[in-house]
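Trying the structure run again after the queue cleared.
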Amino acid sequence: MRWRNWAVMALACGMAAGAATAANASTFLRVGLDYLVAENETIVVGEATSARSYWNAAGTFILTDVQVSVSQVLKGSVKSKEITVTVPGGTVGELTSVVVGGAQLAPGKTYVLFLDRIDLPGSKGVLAVHDHGQGAFDVDLEGNELRAVSQARRQELLPDAAGKADAVGGAEGMPLARLLAEVRQLAARERNGRPEVK
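Done. Tokens:
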């Protein structure tokens, strides 16, 4: 299920003064790793280094541009090691706009990001996480192991065709090395002409 109609998603935005909306207020269809790889043009590992929130040109929607320093490209290509990822929502002054279930990128944190060029309100063809929290994995050190945990673990997901309702990796996530290996394998299979998973 593609969430490219951001005008509809804008209706799911919670507007609050310095407060966040409950994460379980919206439900999305669960997608698997094969879908995420097939349906996104660029997949990277990178650290968010800065963020800037602003009103779109029409003054109707808050967007946030997040600068990401890319350490690995798993699929696709980037023109520079520094890329801009645009996410809907953010804080301007005392007004906060939250897209329920959306990807949340904070400076100083490392992520695995599944990215595509999409249209957001007032911005055309921006690089974004169109699968919301399912397309963003937090990279955290647990003990001596780096783990990748889907941001969708905080979201109630509708079961997919196979009956799975947990985010990729489940609540505990998976070793980062395993996720990267699986993504590379799926991307290689796609390059070799096997059918994409829809």
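The first helix runs from residue 6 to 10. Worth checking whether this holds up in the mutant runs.
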